[in-house]
Write a structure and sequence with these properties.
Elements lengths: L13 E5 L2 E5 L5 H15 L10 H9 L3 E5 L1 H10 L4 H5 L6 E2 L10 H4 L5 H16 L1 H4 L8 H10 L25 H16 L10 H4 L9 H7 L1 H8 L4
Parallel strand pairs: 2-3, 3-4
Antiparallel strand pairs: 1-2
Length: 242
């Protein structure tokens, strides 16, 4: 059971506390997958593994807004949404993204060991990054009504400030996400994920084919390419004390 939020217990029975942010799952979820997701979450919050969260402000936002990371199925998601109507959970829990254990890609032991991509790297970052948008709006703000260093970098990467997906991106753009359902804010979230992956080497072609397979969306496969071409993103991630 969740120690404070009882309305989560109607569907979930597995709870892993990661610095106060819970990975949650129904009893049907394979425990090794739930634990793997919790480990990815832990590494995003405490990347140097010293037992102390790397950025307390980011963590405080996630904990105070009751963010959880579900590992579930579509059917479990629908059951949960039905169960929480009219309860505390409806308006007081955060679920920015989740993992579907019967659909998503998993790399147990890490992408180098497994030889495959890991959807956790994206989906769990979409949860953690909520704390970054809120804590450092001048740097990572995702509000369409004002510019941040993140959105300025994205505009440069897309070859313009596009409030909706353009019919065609400029030829020299290296971030070219074209999902019509993804608005400007959503595009900024996807961009934050891609620059982080490139910055810490997760897209290295010697490790994974993920970047090659994602050329319709993202074109920089290494930290070196990020530093050379996306100078605003590289500066934001590496030169401001984060």
């Amino acid at each position: 059971e969740h120690p404070q939020i009882s309305c989560l217990n109607a569907v979930f029975s597995v709870f892993i506390d990661v610095f106060g942010v819970y990975v949650v799952a129904p009893p049907s979820a394979p425990l090794e997958l739930v634990t793997h997701s919790a480990n990815v979450l832990a590494q995003y919050i405490d990347n140097d593994a010293d037992g102390v969260p790397d950025d307390p402000a980011v963590l405080e936002h996630l904990v105070s807004h009751n963010f959880v990371v579900p590992v579930w199925t579509t059917a479990t998601r629908e059951a949960f949404l039905e169960n929480i109507r009219g309860t505390y959970c409806e308006d007081n829990t955060g679920m920015a993204a989740s993992m579907y254990y019967d659909e998503d890609e998993w790399a147990l032991g890490g992408i180098k060991t497994a030889g495959t991509w890991d959807g956790n790297l994206e989906e769990i970052w979409h949860v953690v990054s909520v704390g970054w948008y809120a804590s450092y709006p001048d740097y990572f703000g995702d509000d369409v009504s004002f510019s941040s260093m993140l959105t300025d970098a994205m505009d440069a990467a897309r070859g313009g400030r596009f409030l909706s997906i353009p019919d065609q991106y400029p030829d020299d753009a290296w971030y070219t996400y074209d999902d019509e359902t993804c608005d400007y804010v959503c595009s900024a979230h996807e961009y934050f994920y891609w620059i982080l992956m490139a910055n810490f080497g997760a897209l290295d072609p010697s490790i994974t084919a993920k970047c090659e397979q994602s050329q319709d969306e993202w074109h920089l496969c290494s930290r070196t390419e990020l530093k050379q071409l996306d100078v605003l993103a590289f500066d934001l991630l590496n030169n401001h004390g984060f």
